[in-house]
Amino acid sequence: MFDWLAEKIDKSLVFIREFFSGIWNDFYNFISELPAVILEQILNSLSAIFTSISAPSFLQYGLTSLFSSLPDSVIYFLTQAGFFQGLAIFGTGVTFRLTRKLLTLGQW
After folding, report:
1. Residue 98: which of 50, 53, 57, 56 has the closest Cα?
2. Nearest in space to 99 (alpha carbons), one of 63, 41, 50, 33
3. Would you say 78 and 86 are in contact if contact means Cβ atoms under 8 Å apart?
4. Distance of alpha carbon 77 from alpha carbon 72, whole angstroms
5. 14-49 burial by CB neighbour count: b if 16+ within 10 A, else e?
6. Environment class of 67 (CB within 10 Å of its CB; exposed 0-12, middle 13-18, buried 19+)
């Protein structure tokens, strides 16, 4: 006799359970994605700061202009001594060190 009422109550309870379950899932997704959003904003602001810094005047034309003013005999000696390969290795090491410091927030 009251089957329709029991059916309406069951549907209402299912609706309420799904409603609060959806709210909980949305809250969980918000909390789990919040650190990624904050990190993205921090990295974007650091990127904007670094791009706003201009290069020093002696580096605006690169190292090519610096080495082109040297005499040919000095350039030949530097080439035979492996100076340019050493400079590349040194630059790679400095880049690795700065990247490591940035990623670990200076702790390493």
Report:
1. 50
2. 50
3. no
4. 9
5. eeeeeeeeeeeeeeeeeeeeeeeeeeeeeeeeeeee
6. middle
Task: State pLDDT tens for residues 13-26.
Answer: 999 999 999 999 99
- Give the pair of three-digit tokens for residue 105: 């927030």
Ordered by start, the domain boundaries in the chain are 1-52, 69-108
pLDDT tens digit sequence for 25-58: 999 999 999 999 999 999 999 888 888 888 777 6
What Rg value do the Cα atoms of the chain yield, rounded? 31
Polymer length of the chain: 108
Q: What secondary structure does DSSP assign to 76-104, as a single string?
A: HHHHHHTHHHHHHHHHHHHHHHHHHHHHT
Q: Which pTM was predicted?
A: 0.41
